[in-house]
Amino acid sequence: MSLIPIVTLPDEKTLREVSKPVAGIDSHVKKLWDDMLETMYHAPGIGLAAIQLGVAQRLLVIDLAKDGEAKTPIFVANPEIIKTSEARSDYEEGCLSIPEFYEMVTRPAEVWIRYLNRQGEPTETHATGLMATCLQHEIDHLNGVLFIDHISRLKRERVIKKFQKAQKLGKL
Ligand code: ZN
């Protein structure tokens, strides 16, 4: 396994790319998942999409285990949201591609997802709470959508400008 640099703002060209489905689960996909997981644990974070490492494939890793708890990695390929609840929930989200920025986002409280697991088997899952939020945040990445797209335009423009300025000053 190896650590891969995480793509951050202001690199919107990469982060806005729409990722392509994988044809199946082979050794390349498994190697990429392992690198994604190691990179995510190291960051640290609870979810990562392949595009955040510059790879436009519809692959995610998620692990909601807290510090000191046994790891519970979930490997997701080609996820599709089948259904979402009417009920909404608010969560203060962050993103490894937008370091040190957190904002409240409102999303459906529950989601039903279909995806391929690490064995390449079609799998369906129903998620609530933080897992529902995390899955929606990560699936957004596969469509070139960032969590700042769910907040006000003013706040979004402000954070993008902040990263553009930091890059110009050579601080990124
Ligand atoms: Zn993110």
Layout of strands and helices, then pairs:
Layout: H1 12-15, H2 27-42, E1 47-49, E2 59-62, E3 74-84, E4 88-95, E5 98-108, E6 110-116, E7 122-128, H3 129-142, H4 153-168
Antiparallel strand pairs: 1-2, 2-3, 3-6, 4-5, 6-7
The structure holds zinc ion (ZN).
Going by CATH, the homologous superfamily would be Peptide deformylase
Q: Span from first to last CA?
A: 25 Å
Approximate strand percentage: 25-35%
Structural class computed from helices and strand pairing: alpha+beta
Which descriptor suits the 3D outline?
Answer: globular
Radius of gyration: 16 Å
Unreliable stretches: none
How many discrete structural domains?
A: 1
Total strands: the figure is 7
User: If strands are numbered along the chain, what order do they take across the biggest sheet?
Assistant: 1-2-3-6-7
Instruction: Name the ligand types.
Output: zinc ion
Count of discrete alpha- or pi-helical segments spanning 4 or more residues: 4
Helix-strand string: HHEEEEEEEHH
The CATH C-level name is: Alpha Beta
Main β-sheet description: 5 strands, antiparallel
Helix content: 25-40%
Overall average residue pLDDT:
96
Structure write-up:
The protein is α+β, with helices and mostly antiparallel strands and 172 residues long. The chain has one domain: Peptide deformylase (Peptide Deformylase, Alpha-Beta Complex), CATH 3.90.45. The chain contains 4 helices and 7 strands, in the order ααβββββββαα. It has helices at residues 12-15, 27-42, 129-142, 153-168, and strands spanning 47-49, 59-62, 74-84, 88-95, 98-108, 110-116, 122-128. The chain has a 5-stranded antiparallel sheet. The longest helix has 16 residues, at 27-42. The site of zinc ion has 5 residues, from α3.
